[in-house]
Amino acid sequence: MSEITRRLMTRRQMLKLSAAASAAAMIGPATGLFSGRAAAAPGQAGAVKSVFSACDMCFNKCGLIARVQQGVVTKLDPNPRYLKSRGMLCARGNAGIGQLYDPNRLKYPLLRAGERGQGKWQRLSWDQALDLAAEKLQAIAEKYTRCGVLFMAGTDTQSTFVHRFAEVFGSYNVISHESNCLISRNRAYLDTFGAMPIPDTLNCKYILMAGANRFEALVTPDSMDIVTAMHAGAKLVVLDPRYTKTAALANEWYPIKPGTDLAFFLAMAHVLVNEELYHKKFVAERTSGFDQLAAHVQKYTPEWAAAECDIKAVDIRRITREMAAAKPAAMVYPGRRTSDYENSTQIRRAMAIVNALLGNWDQKGGLTLPRQIKTGHIGYDAPFYDDNPEDRVDAGRAQMMFSEEGSFKYTRDAVIEGKPYPIKGWFTYKTNPMQTGANRAKTVEMINQLDFMITVDINLSDTAWMADLVLPAPTSLEREDPVSSFQGSSACSGMVMRNPAVSPMFESRPVFWIVKQLARRLKLGEFFDFTMADFRQAQLKKIPEVAAALAKEGVYNDTRPSWGVHQGKDFRTPSKKVELYVGRYLKHGVDPLPVYHPRQEVPEGKFRIVVGRNAYISQSASTNNALLCEIQDDNCLWIHPRPAAKLAIGPGDLVEVASPAGTQKLKARVTEEIRPDTVYMDTGYGVISKGLRNIYGKGACIAAVLEDRADRVTGNMAMHETLVSVTKVADSAAAATCPKR
Ligand SMILES: Nc1nc2c(c(=O)[nH]1)N[C@H]1C(S)=C(S)[C@@H](COP(=O)(O)OP(=O)(O)OC[C@H]3O[C@@H](n4cnc5c(=O)[nH]c(N)nc54)[C@H](O)[C@@H]3O)O[C@H]1N2
Ligand SMILES: Nc1nc2c(c(=O)[nH]1)N[C@H]1C(S)=C(S)[C@@H](COP(=O)(O)OP(=O)(O)OC[C@H]3O[C@@H](n4cnc5c(=O)[nH]c(N)nc54)[C@H](O)[C@@H]3O)O[C@H]1N2
Ligand code: SF4
Ligand SMILES: [Mo]
Known about the structure:
Layout: H1 3-7, H2 11-21, E1 48-54, E2 63-69, E3 72-78, H3 91-94, H4 96-100, E4 110-112, E5 121-123, H5 126-144, E6 149-153, H6 159-169, E7 174-175, H7 183-193, E8 198-199, E9 206-210, H8 222-231, E10 235-239, H9 245-249, E11 252-254, H10 261-274, H11 280-286, E12 287-288, H12 290-296, H13 302-309, H14 313-326, E13 330-332, H15 344-357, E14 367-368, H16 408-417, E15 425-429, H17 433-436, H18 440-448, E16 452-457, H19 462-466, E17 469-472, E18 484-486, E19 493-496, H20 511-521, H21 532-540, H22 544-553, E20 555-558, E21 578-579, E22 606-610, H23 626-629, E23 636-639, H24 641-646, E24 654-659, E25 662-670, E26 678-680, E27 709-710, E28 717-718, E29 723-730
Parallel strand pairs: 6-7, 6-15, 9-10, 9-13, 10-11, 12-21, 15-16, 16-17, 22-26, 23-25
Antiparallel strand pairs: 1-2, 2-3, 4-5, 4-17, 8-14, 18-19, 19-20, 22-29, 24-25, 24-29, 27-28
Helix pairs in contact: 5-20, 6-20, 7-15, 10-13, 10-14, 10-15, 13-14, 16-18
Bound molecules: ligand MGD (2 copies), iron/sulfur cluster and molybdenum atom.
Molybdenum atom is lined by residues 181-182, 337.
């Protein structure tokens, strides 16, 4: 057991840990550290209290029960009643306790005292911080209109209050994580099926997974259900340039040439059509555009595709035939993150088309209609500000952007250019674009255009490091949140509740409270004239059976079957059918059927760099977590032995990775688990913030080398378009110091 783990073991040691942190000016003294916690009653020392909550280490919100002893969270257990998470908490979920008792936690509001990014801070009281924030927001609104403030909130149930605040304040420049994550996938499926389907992986017989890594990039319950399905005989085929853990457990793995999945799926469509293996009844009754599709895919033969994607024609044919034989319980897994290529929407459209040809819609083991329990809310009529510009600042920069989500890439470009109008304020909550927005130098450039930037975080993330005002937030284990309703899965649809296991530590305050205070100062208090309890009550008012279950068990499961519910009903598309051919794309300049444009070969001496995940890291958010640092506290560059030998790079050597966006140095991991033309590194290292003391000075930041290209249709960031060169900087005798895997 290492020093870090031992220090996290007991309450006394946790106190010590926090006291030790007091040395740092930005975190401040530990006086009254646990003063607000829910203490055990006198004479009850050692009594264990159980609190229902939901993990917040990633968006899945797995149900958990916190064990609280003498006001200290001692252990997190999965909530066994919660079907969505299948009685599981992953490594990151277990480490939630490390987030709560992180000595690097922010304790007080901090105002920048030196140059931006210099790390000099002045402690403010909450009143001072909120007065200043309100004054700055008001000044920007008056000088540049209210749309001159940009709001960005990560995945969280309290993000709804940031959005509400933005709306009543009067800015429609609101960005979520989605344009760095999955909007091209959503666009493709919404335009094809009229809905973003939920895969019934549990009952599926044949899963083809491309551009997803479900056994490391965990999505509950799919990650567990695919394994269960495989035990029952299901087949898993993975296309990935890396030998991921998903690839390792799959029946077949193909190291596809990055960016060529469209060729593979068009060839699948060719085989399904030409060999008449498609689901004839479904195609005839429920789809439109089959004739155009059939003509379109004639030229996309498996032999043609093989040359593009590096997968043999015989395998493309066989996989297609096997899937056709297993239909309708066969699927191309829809995936999640598609912030990868400039034609990502079209790649996912081709996958959606293959799914439609397999007729797996609304079928057991296929793609199912999302279901969600409807919650109530506290409504409002946002004021209208007639001096505002007409549209979002990023409007019109992509062919078919989602106006609610916008595009981080294009918004950042607009802020840098000051066009079509200036943005001078930025409010970020629970998001870290300095690490998760490709091209870090541009994010810095953007921030340098601002008059005032406010960041609400639990620790001094790289984004907080660049802000003017940093506001400390409580972790999920200290928060009472709105109840969360999630869309149906193979397991169920349902709800989960997050209650505070302990009171907020230090001077941390939830963002609901923060925006409420700001609203009051900006004379918008009427829009936040309620408590969290009121909000939850409004959510649950019309669903008393759910409220009762949440109170009793912390979760509610709706276990009605998710398939066989859409028969005889229209699809929410203009033709009311599944649109193989999307006619309305034409007026936006988008190909109504996916057209393949050959991908530029990676030139000799260059590599394509790709993004991915492992099971211990949540994007950029958990790399400094003391418990997870036990498993990995550094990243390294995956590089294949052949190019490594040519470049005289050995295991553990220090290498420089360079692209037009920037240069980073890190250790090499020489491995056959990646294609020779591709390199990879984990996200969340190479931080600039000295407030992240477990990882500061370790590894490299992938966002600093990724170029910021975008999916043409949606403006989704395209993070796999960057070519890099790799050069050796120094030998390392210490090959073993490269992160374990
Ligand atoms: N442990 C963990 N779990 C997570 C998260 C986390 O950070 N950590 N994040 C959550 C979130 S927000 C999301 S969006 C999901 C993301 O989950 P996924 O959608 O599964 O996304 P990634 O993990 O990014 O996996 C993309 C995979 O595609 C591969 N790849 C790269 N280029 C190509 C290509 O051209 N073709 C093909 N076929 N493959 C390619 C990469 O090597 C990588 O393994 O995971 C969620 N779950
Ligand atoms: N290089 C790279 N870029 C990526 C990805 C990648 O894998 N690699 N993934 C993409 C994807 S799929 C996504 S979804 C996005 C996600 O990108 P982001 O939305 O930036 O998400 P995280 O990296 O998880 O950063 C979350 C931030 O919130 C803070 N935080 C954590 N818990 C709390 C809390 O309870 N309260 C508050 N106030 N703050 C908290 C963390 O300290 C961290 O600073 O990134 C995208 N960009
Ligand atoms: S998958 Fe892991 S990190 Fe994500 S919510 Fe579930 S337990 Fe937490
Ligand atoms: Mo994501």
